[in-house]
Amino acid sequence: MFNKTVLLALAALLAAPAATAQESTNSLDAAINEMVGAATGPFVNFIFSPFPGTSFPWIVLWLVIAATVFTVYFAFVQFRSFPHSIALVTGKYSDPDDAGEVSHFQALATALSGTVGLGNIAGVAVAVSIGGPGATFWMILAGLMGMASKFTECTLGVKYRNEYPNGSVSGGPMYYLSKGMEERGFAKLGKFLAILFSIFCVLGSLGGGNMFQANQAHAQISNIVGDYPGWITGIIFAAIVFAVIIGGLKSIAQVTEKVVPFMGVLYVGTALIIIAMNYDQIGWAFGQIFAGAFTGLGVAGGLVGALIQGFKRAAFSNEAGVGSAAIAHSAVRTKEPITEGYVSLLEPFIDTVVICTMTALVIVITGVLQIDPQTGLYIWDAEAGRVATEGNVSGVALTSAAFGSALSFFPYVLALAVILFAFSTMISWSYYGLKAWTYMFGEGKAQELSFKILFCIFVVIGAAMNLGPVIDFSDAAIFAMALVNIFGLYFLMPIVKAEMLSYQARLKSGEIKRYA
Asked: Is the whole model's pTM more than 0.90, yes or no?
């Protein structure tokens, strides 16, 4: 009788007037947007302010220069060591007795689940709609160069991690900035950078690793089932995320090692089907990408506009130089720090060169970007500040429209991919934020639980917000992490080079054993 009464009461609550619920939701959204916009506006404006005399954001230039420096300094390690990276991931050099919590594959899957997310779907759509198809070329180039940045930071993450008696580890930029900089004679500077990075990492985990994911997941679900309040999606996601992250990194790794390969195959497989259906357009699409990279094809900003959008979106997608992935890779079972550097350089390749390119090709090939038939140039929507699109959509809705133009049921497949991408990104970023949180406030169950609860609250907030303030805050917080991290990497890269040369010599002599 009691259960029946409860069910009737719940049914009555759910049957409340839709108009009243929507009005309350809109008021809540407006209040949240106004509060977040006021609080983060100056911070966002500073991070994305242009380099003096140009329209190029200085923070993007900071990432591009760093990736170039690391690529040259390590003699194009991302290309020379690609085969060895594959061998490490498949466990051919893994000693099961090494210290650490997860395997090379699990560490890669956890880090990939933090980078392969809605930046690959919504972010690429934003880049292509603003910078034109040419943004794809610069995105790929940024991904290839960023492999060297990832190699540098993840090697340091393992080298300077804390290993505890219970077998758990803590690592990442906050540890190598403090310990590594102390070794180089800059102890006070290193400690300051470590704290500053931790603050930005917590903000990044709550923004790009959380709110942005929940926001775009809700947008795609609403696109399929119809409009409804975002907080409902937020509560459902928060409950599932909390159930996973409460078990720690091993629990997260067990989920990501299954989810990441599945969602990657699902998304890339779907994109390949659409590309195959339009095989006669493939050559034309690549022509648009290369031509747009150097001419802009009528898109406002031309070459510079395409370059900025491509580099900006690639950085947000693969996070090379940001330092976040070094936190996940630090937990790997190995006694050779450089091995995880080799493994990690696969991330930008998978994330940007493969998955982001698939998204861009689908958008270009399916024709959802509108072209003037007389000039052959893309039609610029000055009011929207981007290329005109079918249905006047942007972000994840543009990618959904591109997928749906091939076969009507593909948006449902995309919706599943979006949900998986959002979920996996959130659980990985919860771990990144947690490690930054405990670095500042100390290790302990109380500190861990307080952050996990805070993280889940922000899942609900993110789902209830509009895209504008979410994406601004997400980008700014994550790029701010890169500002601190890369500054430290310049001081510490000689340490990585010494590790690399030592390992390569021992590998060549046969001292490094192969286990499979």
From this structure: no
